[in-house]
Amino acid sequence: MKDNILRNFQSYGRRAAFVPLLMAGTMLAACSSDEGLNILGFGSGTDDVVAQDGLQSTIPYTVEITGIDPLEEDLIAALDAVSTARRLQSRPTASRAGLQRRAEDDIERFQAVLRSSGFYDGQITFDIQEKQVEQPGEAIDQSNADAEQDDAVMASDASDATDSKDPKDPNDPGAEVKGPTPVVLTYMIDVGTPYLISSVDLVVTYPDKVIERSATDAELEKTRLQIGQRATAQPIILAEQYGVDIIREQGYPLVKATKRTIMADTAQKTISIKYGFETGPQANFGAVTVNGADEVDADFIAGYRSWEAGERYSPEQVRTTRRDLAQTNLFDSVIVKVVGPVGESGEIPVEFNVVERKMRSIGGGVDFSTADGPGANAFWEHRNLFGAGEKLRLGAEASGFEQGLTAEFRKPQFLSRRQALVADANAKNNDTDAYQGETVDSFVGVERPLGENWSTTLGVTAEYSDLTGSDSPNEQFYLAGLRGILRHDNTDNPLDPTEGTRFEINVSPYMGLTDKDTNFTSVSIAGSQYLSIDDDGDYVVAARARTGTIIGEERGDLPSNKRFYSGGGGSIRGYEYQKVGPLADDGDPIGGRSVLEVGFEFRARVTESFGIVPFVEGGNVYARSEPEDIDLLWAAGLGFRYYTAVGPLRFDVAVPLDKRENVDDDYQFYISLGQSF
Hints:
Strand content: 35-45%
Number of strands: 26
CATH topology of the largest domain: Porin
Structural class: alpha+beta
Largest sheet: 16 strands, antiparallel, barrel
Shape: globular
Distance between the termini: 114 Å
CATH architecture of the largest domain: Beta Barrel
């Protein structure tokens, strides 16, 4: 009896001890959801990985999106970007229920992405399946299957007869613990028929009226919308800002967008868009206030405004003023904006906010070539000499061919807002194969833009030369003349252009100021073209050409430094400096009255910092004022570029293809900063 009571008590005790274990298991089961531990005060969120005493583990998974045309690359990328399941794939959930909640959350996100891409009827479902993983040796020879099955039965009987531990018991060091089976979360997406834009209407609220109308063809073009295009979100949203710009261009500086309405026609698979705008009052430009001016005169800054007092407000004029101020290099930042409200007189004030930069700088550079020898230059520059943006630049340069001093001065807003007074002077000692001696020249003129990307310079020049050359005696020349230059430049980078065109015409008539009657006119035309053959500008085809003529004097009556020469790093690489063209009996160049040059480069940027440039160039100089023929001396070579923050460092090697006996070397090489043209 006592044994029975003891056994019953032990049985009851075991049952009683099982109750708290059952409660704990229930609590852990509740915690097996993504929210469980968070409810109990443990964990940090729904996606925390839970592990306690080995009772809970996570389920690894992969994500697949099916049903979308592979050509819809932007759509697929957008779906991947918003997917919670994809983003948290490295932190898998502890149960399928948690993964299912992630998938359900993704469906709402995916629907928004589909609508933003013009698919308003998209259907999305998902499925979670165990991932099929083929194990090594999984395929079993059927001839051995029966024997293996008998062995398994015998092993099972032996196991039942033996008091062994559960092979999944984590306390058994020899037990084989198997983790959760990986699963695949597959989204099945049927995008449906894309919706198209059927109409675009404007509701414009003026101070005295409201007008509702369809957008004109010109307005649609400016807003980048087209009737019949897919109704994707980004163009529709951007069009609203373009609409604000359109109304602002009509003289309404305070216009703002109000309500945008999009209506979908599910039967026709189209949408209609209605934009609302409130114009505010129309205004003229009012008083200008300058903030941030310290060293630069505030009136000078205000003088850059491109509008006349009382002129109708125009955002284009504001942009022009901001651009012109930024190009002065006087400021680190420039903001030009209207500050409302519109006054009783119908004018709106304008505010210039500037941050001045340092006004002085120094710099220099070096170069080397087998043709030109070593060279160096240095400069000092002040960009606000008298407080109104006057720039003075003093420089010195020295090479094996010339040594000299230079000075340049530029005063903006000279007699006109966009006109500048320019002046320069140079004093040099020359020692080339073509001539030796001293030259001094000076120029004073005005410079002004002529529309977008065009500019002109016109002024007077005075020059002195005392040179000895192979084809001229030791003579002094005193010349006065005019200089007229017309330029066009729409390239994207001054040191390393990838797109655009440069073009320059220079016409300079001269007359002698001494007893010697010297009168001639020099005309030169030069241009270059740059074409990028990829979107990033890593591969560029570049071409250049130059031609010139001198009219009025024979070659022997011209100062040696006013003749045309060719050859060297700045013209035809592969030939010595000035050596392309007529030569004296001793092999020294004598120059000519006309010149013709062409050059081609293929600029390939191989890495972020390194590039190669194969090139070919040709040219010649002629004794007469027009070329006797087009028989050019050609050269070819290969260049290497190391790209720096200030421009590419250039190393070129070139060989003459029309090598002249006892005149030309086998090769020439050049080192400098910036592209060759």
